[in-house]
Specification:
Elements: E1 11-16, H1 20-35, E2 39-40, E3 49-54, H2 59-75, E4 80-85, H3 86-90, H4 92-96, E5 103-105, E6 127-129, E7 143-145, E8 150-154, E9 156-157, H5 168-172, E10 176-177, H6 180-192, E11 197-201, H7 216-223, E12 231-234, H8 244-252, E13 259-265, H9 269-275, H10 281-294, E14 299-306, H11 313-325, E15 330-335, H12 353-377, E16 382-387, E17 395-400, E18 405-409, E19 418-427, E20 432-436
């Protein structure tokens, strides 16, 4: 039995690194502590409890995690420090060895944090509580609001796709999900809190349904019925799981935004095979063409990794040519980072850092060019924009349904309200289109 009196008059600070799924889960941890009587620490106030939710998608993410942990401990020297997230699951002893860390929680334990806090006394060495990957089975629904206007609803967790470069299945376990009924209730709660936009998040959201024998399309159909939600966005979804039926549904929906994000990772079929991806460039091209055929103004974001083992110069040139040949709106370019325990380490050919940097710059420049072209193609059209909170007196920004960034002079009455505007000219300094209010 937990003695909840230890939480009286205690404060907590929360720090999140990595993906939107982590932000949703940190929010769930915060609510759990709040329900136990722990208040959120004010900005600049030294907290009694610090919770750091880490990422481990790359070696750089691990480094940032260590830096963040040390910084938090330096700023809160007396706090009981809890570290969780993917880095904590994959390298718990390494994390526990950082001076000042008191508790390391794995993926199965992090959303039941109160259970492990005991007396909140500082420890000489961090205590580790984790489970083996195959024992990570629980799914705890979570939803968070960012510091703008969007809410992130976790609908799925874990992954059964063991791509050769990726550690996520080891960090988060097998694919699992919440029930449609529970997720609909959470969407309804967002409406009660005044939320207008919900982003569906997960590790592999198109794989939704393993736990409950439901389907991702069925989830979309039920969420679409929730009154009060202005719009939903689907976060990154595997191209082989983005069915034509889902694309058709989004095209006919009043609430799901014409905004798709798909991981391509490489435009070379040979490299995709080395990565152990479950599609080829023919399928990816079909998905892009299908979207543009029925939703010509849709925004299409694409993830790409450069410099993976096995990516020869010829393969990169082939991949770049494919990427240039498809009608995308923006690239998210990642530089390959070797991760211990992954199958990619068995591939002989390694790309040197300088070449990785050059390849990354080539694709980032292409992305900037395409994004501006997409923005300019929307000039003169009428769109619905959801303006975000900003500092008073400064320009405020918001996104249209098809993810065009707009700016306008600050007007408190427009914040968190969907407003129809005309898309004006592009501003290089704002890197956004001007919102024109003309009735």
């Amino acid at each position: 039995m937990i003695d909840r009196t230890i939480f009286q008059n205690k404060t907590a600070a929360y720090y999140t690194l990595g993906c939107k799924l982590n932000f949703a889960e940190t929010s769930a941890i915060g609510r759990q502590l709040l329900n136990s009587g722990v208040r959120r620490a004010r900005k600049g106030q030294e907290a009694d409890i610090c919770v750091i939710n880490t990422c481990s998608v790359t070696e750089l993410a691990d480094k940032k995690g260590r830096q963040a942990i040390r910084k938090v401990i330096q700023e809160n020297p007396s706090a009981f420090v809890v570290v969780t997230g993917c880095y904590a699951q994959l390298k718990p002893e390494e994390v526990a060895g950082i001076e000042g860390v008191d508790l390391v929680l794995g993926a199965e334990q992090k959303l039941d944090v109160v259970k492990y806090l005991d007396d909140l006394k500082k420890k000489e060495k961090g205590e580790v509580v984790t489970s083996k990957t195959h024992r990570i089975r629980s799914f705890v629904p979570s939803v968070s609001a960012d510091d703008r206007t969007r809410y992130f609803l976790k609908v799925q967790d874990g992954c059964d796709y063991f791509c050769s470069f990726c550690t996520i299945p080891f960090a988060r376990g097998r694919s699992r999900n919440g029930s449609i009924a529970d997720l609909v209730r959470q969407a309804e709660q967002v409406v009660q809190e005044g939320g207008k936009e919900i982003v569906l998040t997960g590790v592999n959201i198109g794989d939704f349904g393993h736990t409950t024998k439901e389907s991702f399309l069925d989830l979309l159909k039920e969420l679409d019925k929730v009154e009060g939600v202005e719009r939903y966005r689907i976060s990154s979804i595997e191209p082989n799981l983005l069915s034509d039926e889902i694309i058709d549904f989004v095209a006919g929906s009043h609430r799901f935004a014409p905004h798709f994000h798909m991981p391509l990772q490489s435009g070379s079929d040979a490299v995709l095979s080395l990565m152990k991806r479950r599609y080829d460039t023919t399928l990816f091209r079909h998905k892009v063409e299908k979207i543009k055929q029925i939703l010509p103004h849709a925004f299409i974001g694409v993830d790409v990794i450069v410099g993976v083992r096995g990516e020869t110069d010829d393969y990169f040139v082939e991949g770049e040519a494919f990427i240039r040949s498809i009608d995308f709106s923006q690239l998210h370019v990642f530089t390959y980072s070797e991760r211990p325990g992954t199958a990619a380490l068995n591939i002989d050919y390694a790309v040197d850092p300088k070449t990785k940097h050059m390849r990354s710059k080539t694709l980032l420049d292409l992305s900037d060019e395409r994004l501006k072209d997409f923005y300019l193609s929307q000039q003169g059209s009428r769109k619905k924009v959801l303006f975000e909170h900003t500092k008073r007196g400064k320009k405020m920004h918001g996104f249209t349904e098809n993810y065009v960034k707009l700016y306008a002079d600050y007007d408190a009455s427009l914040v968190n309200r969907v407003t129809e505007v005309e898309v004006g000219a592009y501003d290089e300094e704002e890197m956004a289109m001007k919102a024109i209010f003309n009735g």
